[in-house]
């Protein structure tokens, strides 16, 4: 998979997080989604600056654990989870 494709998948995940932040009515979900957005930005920056998937492996693994601990409800949560799995598969990190 090309780096452009990976950036596209990461962008879709990030936009799903933003949509979730904008639409959630659950106050307890906002900090979780915000934390995931911060991690997505860090992943993007590392990939952009290094052009190397290895540079994000540990961060992505940490986020896999964080996604396991945090639950985002409803269709928005389902969409975020699906986009996250798509991204982790693209960078070769198992759930």
Summarize the structure.
The protein is mainly alpha-helical and 95 residues long. The chain has helices spanning 3-23, 29-50, 57-69, 74-91. It has one domain.
What would you note in describing this structure?
Helix 1 (3-23) packs antiparallel against helix 2 (29-50) and helix 1 (3-23) packs antiparallel against helix 4 (74-91). With 95 residues, the protein is an all-alpha fold. The protein starts with a helix and ends with a helix. It has one domain (3-91). Helix content is 78%, strand content 0%. It is elongated.
| Major beta-sheet overview | none
Q: Can you tell me the overall shape?
A: elongated
- Unreliable spans are none
Strand content: under 5%
Backbone CA Rg: 13 Å
The overall average pLDDT, rounded, is 90
Distance between the termini: 19 Å
Q: H/E order of the elements?
A: HHHH
Structural class: mainly alpha
Q: Number of helical segments?
A: 4
Report the helical percentage. over 70%
The strand count comes to 0
* Whole-number total of structural domains: 1
